[in-house]
Each structure stands twice: as structure tokens, then as C-alpha cells.
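Input C-alpha cells:
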């Protein structure tokens, strides 16, 4: 039950922060990332079924993943969070920020934030047109 409450709080925070990201981008915190890495596949999928009822959130089923992804829309685009599980634990976390109108400030904010996270996390970051892709693993 405690994981469910943390997870719900994380999603609400993420939703609030991303919606208010038009001037200043508020990105997922290290603590939120650690909560996702500690969530098992069953809990993740159950929570997304519940959150799918919110207007700004949607569960997605990607072709290459048996678990759901979370898509949250904001005024200038959306973010998709996709955990990949191995033996019911999160092995890697993919985060895709898409901006309708991307600029250097948005790009620099995202890059600086994810590059400055915990040294126990390995990040691969790629910028392609209006997308910023972050692949994250525990090192």
C-alpha cells in the first residue's frame, strides 16, 4: 500500500510540474526515479489503469513492451515514461519528452537535469528534432 501511495504522489507531482512547464521546465526528481525503480510490474500496471481516467494522463501499450507506459500531456507537448522490467523489477527507464516547439532553453534544462542526477544512474540522452530521449539504468 505504501508503494501505491508513493506512486500516486509521484504521478500527481509529475502531472503538476509538467503542466506548468511552459516557462520553466520542472523535471522528474531523483526521488521519483528511485520510486519508479522500486516499483514492480504489477503495481505499475495497476496504478496506470487507475490514472488513465485523468484528462492529462493516458496509459499506452508500446509494441516492444508488455507493460504500460504513462503519457502525460502539457501545454507545449508531452512526456512518455516507460519502465522495462526484468524479473519483475525495473531494469531500465525510458523517458521521452516531446515539445511542439523545442528551443535551446528547453533542451539545456532537460540535459543539465538528467546529467546531474545520482552517479548510481547511467543515462544515455539523445536529442532528435522535437524529442529528447533519456534511457536510464542503475549502474
Amino acid at each position: 500500500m505504501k508503494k501505491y501511495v508513493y506512486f500516486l504522489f509521484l504521478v500527481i507531482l509529475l502531472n503538476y510540474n509538467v503542466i506548468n512547464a511552459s516557462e520553466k521546465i520542472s523535471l522528474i526528481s531523483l526521488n521519483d526515479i528511485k520510486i519508479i525503480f522500486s516499483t514492480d510490474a504489477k503495481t505499475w500496471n495497476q496504478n496506470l489503469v487507475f490514472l488513465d481516467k485523468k484528462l492529462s494522463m493516458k496509459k499506452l501499450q508500446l509494441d516492444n513492451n508488455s507493460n504500460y507506459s504513462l503519457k502525460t500531456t502539457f501545454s507545449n507537448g508531452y512526456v512518455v515514461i516507460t519502465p522495462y522490467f526484468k524479473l519483475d523489477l525495473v531494469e531500465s527507464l525510458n523517458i521521452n519528452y516531446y515539445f511542439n516547439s523545442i528551443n535551446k532553453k528547453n533542451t539545456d534544462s532537460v540535459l543539465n537535469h538528467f546529467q546531474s542526477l545520482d552517479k548510481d544512474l547511467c543515462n544515455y540522452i539523445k536529442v532528435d528534432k522535437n524529442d529528447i530521449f533519456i534511457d536510464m539504468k542503475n549502474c
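The mean pLDDT is 80. The first helix runs from residue 2 to 19.
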